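Internal ticket - ligand job 93, zinc ion:
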Amino acid sequence: MTFAKKILITTESREIFIIRNGGTEIFTDHCSGCATDVELLTLEAAVLLSGIAVREIVRLAETGEIHFRETASGHLYVCRRSLCRDVHTGVAR
Ligand SMILES: [Zn+2]
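stdout (structure tokens):
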């Protein structure tokens, strides 16, 4: 009597889309704060999009009011979803 073995192999892949618009970069990746894929913005793009000053964005990131990712090279990327939410009321802008 012979037995057949069935092997299931599952793979997962991710794609990152980088959009360059006037020197600013936006890309999509997973945000652990939102627990979903979101647009991540460079600091420059975050300032242009929100109208919030760089210093304030850095403060909001440090206090956890907006989500961010810092690369090994020191670049800060801001979660657009958390940035576009009113940081004081939690309501989407
Ligand atoms: Zn987020």
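Auto-summary: Residues 30 and 36 are 5 Å apart (CA to CA). The chain has one domain: 18-83.
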